Amino acid sequence: MMAMPTFLRHRVPRSGPPRGATSLVVVMVMLFIVAMVAAYASRNLVFEQRTSANQYRGTLAFEAADAGVEWAITRLNDSRMDNACRPLAAAAIDPTTPQPSFRERYLAIDPTSGMITPVAGRLAGCVFDGSDWSCDCPESGNPNPTFVARGDGPYVAFWVRFSVPPNVRPGIVRVEVNGCTRNDADCLRFDRQSQFGDGLAAHNAQLVLRSALGSVPVAAVTARGSVGLVGGSPTLRITNDAPTGRGITVHAGATFNAPGAVLNTIPGTPAARSVLTADAGLALADLSPPLVPSTPANFGVDRMFQRVFGVWPATFAEATGVVVVPCAPCSAADVNQAVRMHPGHAVMLDGAGPLTIDADIGSATNPVAIVAGGSVRFGGAPVIVHGLVYSRAATWTTAGIGTIRGAAVAEGDLEAGGPLEVVHDSDLLTRLRVSTGTFVRSPGGWRDTAP
User: N or C: which end of the chain has fewer CB within 10 A?
Assistant: First the structure.
């Protein structure tokens, strides 16, 4: 029998391994890799979220502490205030026992040395309620500002205290501020411990009392121009007889022409020797040619102002430790109200109208620095001014009966037109220099750590 051809034979397929196993292994490996990548990415996302939350809370606390430093400086240069640290209007001030200013509440300034000592145990604090700040300036104990939450938190807060810096010098004090993302004494107190989830920050800065009086006048009467009398022979008495002083009664850039004036100087010194006239360093003429671009130094009157107060007139008027009173004319009531509302401030009267002093101003313990835009006159009854009186009038013409105990300075000429007595008081002027002015940051004195 013939054999069947090979191409006609039926082939039976042989069994082998199942197809797709390799693909399954590859897919599983890829899924494992994707899962690992997803887990790693999720881990990084959680880490970044926590880092962002920490940075957010830390930034809030940092800004709160920095705001506390600025708030403290502003309050030190503010008026009298209530226990909620809000400045008081004139009508709200108790006439018998006026509420203290922030400066008086927290600092004691030695009237002779100028050393600043913080009042022990006094703290102040504020909290942001979502729309505004609420503050508390208690006489003792921890701050506890009235707080009503508005909107979503966190409600950042800060506490403030003052301390004595190392290598202490007159006129310098340190402000310390703790900031926290919640209004809680455990987080804000100065011996605090870190709490879970809190944003904490500590700032401190050295502050300097920039005196309103740049230098103490050595003479009882100082004038850039001449000193003389007006009409008849009004009584003019000038005294500078402190044994520890130089005994200068009159210091003028031009002449002194006041026949009959009574000059009292250091015992044993001739009265004529107590008068300095024709002082070219005091006359201060306008610069010719003037500086370009124009500056206050071009004008002798501005340089005279800078000689006494240490700054140009415009800078003086912008200082937060100076009260600018718009009045023309002005009276003692205008000055006394400004002094009563703003202890430790100088008073600048904005206007060329005269200042009529018809009541006593200041006292031996609370002298006043007055800058008048025009002449300064006195009322009918004898009155006394304790402090420095500076007149920016081209010719300061006095009238009435009055006494200036401290010093009188004329930016131009001074002409006495009424019974006038000026008594140089170096102790009073020193008190004025060390306790009156504006608190400012000391350059290089800021730190974002606890001292």
Answer: N
Q: How far is 67 from 62, CA to CA, in rounded Å?
A: 9
pTM of the model: 0.85
**Dist CA 317 CA 49 (whole Å):** 50
Contact 167, 442 (CB under 8 A): no
Residues facing 116 on adjacent strands? 109
CB 385 within 8 Å of CB 402:
yes
Pairing of the two strands 262-264 and 330-331: unpaired
Sign of CA dihedral 391, 394, 398, 403: positive
Query: pLDDT confidence of 150, banded at 50, 70, 90?
Result: confident
pLDDT single digits (tens) 28-87? 878 878 877 777 766 666 666 667 767 888 889 999 999 999 999 999 999 999 999 999
Question: Cα 199 to the chain's mean position, in Å?
Answer: 28
Residue 2 pLDDT greater than 60, yes or no = no
Q: Give the residue carrying structure tokens 């006095």.
A: 398
Determine contact, residues 378/352, Cβ cutoff 8 Å. Answer: no
Question: How many Cβ atoms from other residues are within 10 Å of residue 382's Cβ?
Answer: 13
| Residue 87 per-residue DSSP state | B
Sign of CA dihedral 265, 266, 267, 272: negative
Q: Are 166 and 451 in contact (CB under 8 A)?
A: no
Q: Report whether 380 contacts 400 (CB < 8 A).
A: yes
Round to whole Å and give the CA distance between 130 and 227.
61
| 162 phi/psi in degrees, rounded to 5 | -115, 150
Q: Tokens standing for 389?
A: 């009186």
